[in-house]
Amino acid sequence: MRLNKLLPALDWLKTYSKMDFQQDTVSSIVFTIMVIPQSLAYAMLAGLPAITGLYASILPSVLYSLFGTSRTLAVGPVALTSVMTASVVMPFAVSGTEQYATVAILLAFLSGVFLLVLSLLRLGFLTNLLSHPVISGFISASALLIVIGQLKYLLGIQSEGDTLIPLITSLYEHLSDINLPTFILSFTSIVSLLLVRRHFSGFLKYVGCSAKTVQLFGKSGPVLIVVLATVAVAVFSLDKLGVSIIGAVPNTIPSINTELIDLDIIWKLLPGAFLISIVGFVGSVSVAQSFAAKRRQDIDPNQELVGLGLANIGSALSGAFPVTGGFSRTVLNADCGAKNPMTGIISAFLILLILLFLTPLFFYLPNAILAAIISISMMQLVSVGDLCHLWRFSKKEAFLLLVTFSVVLVEGMQTGLITGVVLSLLFFLWHTSHPHIAIVGRVPGTEHFRNVQRFTVETHPSILTVRIDENLFFANARSLEERLQSLVSQNSAIKHLVLMCTAVNMIDASALQSLEKILDRLNDAGVKLHLSEVKGPVMDRLKDSDLIQHLSGKIFLTQHQAIEELEEKQAKI
Amino acid sequence: MRLNKLLPALDWLKTYSKMDFQQDTVSSIVFTIMVIPQSLAYAMLAGLPAITGLYASILPSVLYSLFGTSRTLAVGPVALTSVMTASVVMPFAVSGTEQYATVAILLAFLSGVFLLVLSLLRLGFLTNLLSHPVISGFISASALLIVIGQLKYLLGIQSEGDTLIPLITSLYEHLSDINLPTFILSFTSIVSLLLVRRHFSGFLKYVGCSAKTVQLFGKSGPVLIVVLATVAVAVFSLDKLGVSIIGAVPNTIPSINTELIDLDIIWKLLPGAFLISIVGFVGSVSVAQSFAAKRRQDIDPNQELVGLGLANIGSALSGAFPVTGGFSRTVLNADCGAKNPMTGIISAFLILLILLFLTPLFFYLPNAILAAIISISMMQLVSVGDLCHLWRFSKKEAFLLLVTFSVVLVEGMQTGLITGVVLSLLFFLWHTSHPHIAIVGRVPGTEHFRNVQRFTVETHPSILTVRIDENLFFANARSLEERLQSLVSQNSAIKHLVLMCTAVNMIDASALQSLEKILDRLNDAGVKLHLSEVKGPVMDRLKDSDLIQHLSGKIFLTQHQAIEELEEKQAKI
User: Fold this and answer.
1) b or e along A107-146 (b: 16 or more beta carbons within 10 Å of the residue's beta carbon)?
2) Among A510, B7, B15, B548, which is most exposed with the fewest C-beta within 10 angstroms?
3) Is pLDDT at B99 greater than 80 in this prediction?
4) Pair (B383, B492) in one structural domain
5) A342 part of a folded domain
6) Interface test with chain B among A440, A473, A484, A508, by most B beta carbons within 10 Å
7) How close, in Å, is residue A166 to chain B by CA atoms?
8) What is the separation, in whole angstroms, between the first and last Cα of chain B?
9) Does a structural domain hold residue B426?
10) How far apart are CA A62 and CA A68, in angstroms?
């Protein structure tokens, strides 16, 4: 059992048959062909030679297939983590140098270690810090930055920077250097890519392909465009006219040059590695979960940390950069018919074969078409609809999205993400420090108690029941003190204060201290303090405390009992 | 009305009579005499000439009396903010130099500005971040550091450092330089201070003083010791034997030397200024509130930010260092019979007179006795009882106290405080990311629903009611998804899932997104999702959302109604 948990592959390997293998091989071949352009493109996005994208698709994919819990997730280079890699590595080295490759490899290694540490310490909950508005703003802004960053490849000019203003300034300065052949190639590629994306399946059906063929190859249109573009460059020698191409692929895989690393660099890379690992993890788990839900399978987030952690360490060992489970990769994988992680292992093997024997085929592959692929897929991630939707739900959260979006654009991805997280924490703290406190009364004819301001309810002049709609802890302890003091001081008829604790799920020492102060002050004022509907976990906490030992009133199981008993007592007086 | 709120002094000035003034003058004279040694001592603690403590007791006290809301709080130099001042200023300058004074003044100014900004932006809730265990650990460790830091004055040796290890190392290295006269003076002072603290009131009674005199002068024992020690130094010329004394007081008050300030220093001082201002504010408000509660008066925390902010700016204008409302100052003030803030104004005037005409009296005042006063009052703040108390209540919070305590000792006050705050946030997030989710059933014969694991309750095989004991927001949205999915997948008989929302006080976009996902998955599984007992504020949020529009089940006002209707429906089938 424990071994199965550690190595989830044992689960599906048990029942794996020869027929499964045949099916998986077909799926893998199609998947591999279709995923190659994407992998090359995202390596370029990370500021590394495009071919590194293939290195990053072998060992990580195998390791995730063995240690991950999703049956469908495809792990490899992903746009968001790739561009984060570029933005983290850039301050340390110039793209294209050995130093750059070394720092990127180190970053993959550190991200892997972080994920494993999070798993060991059960700190996966930290990823919850990325709230929906922050992720949404972050993704939209990053995608926009990526598209703007790709313009240099699309136009064949030089440009630098990784935030909005330097990027645009730099593009503007070099605008006169546009390489016309590159521009024409880019323009044609984008138009054709958009066309095949929309119409290729229809075209296949139209020319009479079987439904199965259409399903398998319906999304292979982009591959066709890539092949055509590469052939065009080769035939017309466009590289001689200034169209930049991948060129010859080195025989050795890059590896860490330990001479270029010191503790200082490692120390400075840690925040970046941490952010990449949690952003990668959150994205990957959400993709895995949505596919698992469709097929009624389970995802174990903690084991996902292990799978993705090992995948990143594997990527570092392959001389590549941080990887994770990607949405578009996984959609491709599912479309190709992948039903279990064996496809990840087979396609890794196929990519290895390609790397060993077929790299000359990539010689004339133009960078511009990779940039076109990136740009098109990124434009879909810039979501204005999400902002409108949020705006209707909560202005505050829409504001959070906008702030994250703007800070990412202007100050960069790391600063933007951290700003978003800190701001969402502050908003939450603000909310919880101003707890909703309702005076409640009985809904006539029931045992049910609701807010006097929203319902017609019965109350008793000398009994005040207050429902505290929040956990009691340090962030609101002092505010609770102030509110109760002012409620009681406003009404001198009150003899009994009942705190209805239906919504109190936890209490900490700071809040207990405040309640003890409140009890003392109420005692002085001749008001008895009662508690009702205290939850089990809270009662466990309170039972030995001074509060309960000195409580002037009683603890009632239900609010109904409290009111019946107190009203009876008042009637007797 | 608005002017009264801005200048709370208008409230009490309206009814202020001549008799009040006479009483206040008597109180103020006694208070002033007694508070002087403390003020001198805390200036020394801040690394400034002792006399600066008097500068810090004039303008700040007047400004707080006019703008603050407490009737009893005494504002001036306070041990904790003084030692924080020293620890913040030390990295920028050597104690005793003009640079040091300038940075301390700047710090007071920045703290004042921070407090005013917090008030303007209504950010006072940020001070809630200081939870009880963090404050307790911080105060104990700081007090211990202060006492160890005073040993150099008590022993008459040199020593440096502001954290435990450098302090002790430095003391150990200079231990052979002990100045015997200083040591004897210190020892005698400490013993006599402890004696008069315990027995002076009794002694006054014994010699036949009236109850009123005892009440007024019962706590003036330390002043007597200070006078005696000063006279002893003067008479026996102990200063010639190496006992360090205050000496001549300069004629000019220190002021900011703008040439020594640049933006870089201001920028680097900001975190320290922020911490000093919130620590000072939290301490001051809690003292003010406890005195106000006794007298049934009100404290307005937001106006307190204004009062203390102006007091600090006033302190900067007087060439002094950060001030706040102090516990021992306020106790003295109350003991002297202060009933309204006029005492603050009168005593400020008296201190001004002393500064103008009586500074020669302080010439022979030995630093050792000030150190003795500080040490004795600080030893009372090291609280082991608090730790034991917390340990019984919650191991986690006791751990928090210990971590804060240790980090303050070893790494310094700022790092310790920040560590404590971050750790308490993490603990809270951890807790709230692992929400308590209870399956509930009806307590027989009532309309009341409780946890099936703690109570004997009635449930229905095809209806699952789940009470979520936590707010629904980004920190637990994903965990909720996982938990509900596994609950439903474990039991295939379930046709209706009722989410009982009694404890849900807020919902954000992340949680809404998760609920929508849950709804989709339940739809696929043929399970209807119902909500019950949704609170008003949460319902307001939900009513326009996709969740409610696509909800497969109903929203019930009460859990009781939900079960009655669903059971009836199931019975029909």
Assistant:
1) bbbbbbbbbbebbeeebbbbbbbbbbbbbbbbbbbbbbbb
2) B15
3) yes
4) no
5) yes
6) A508
7) 25
8) 66
9) no
10) 10
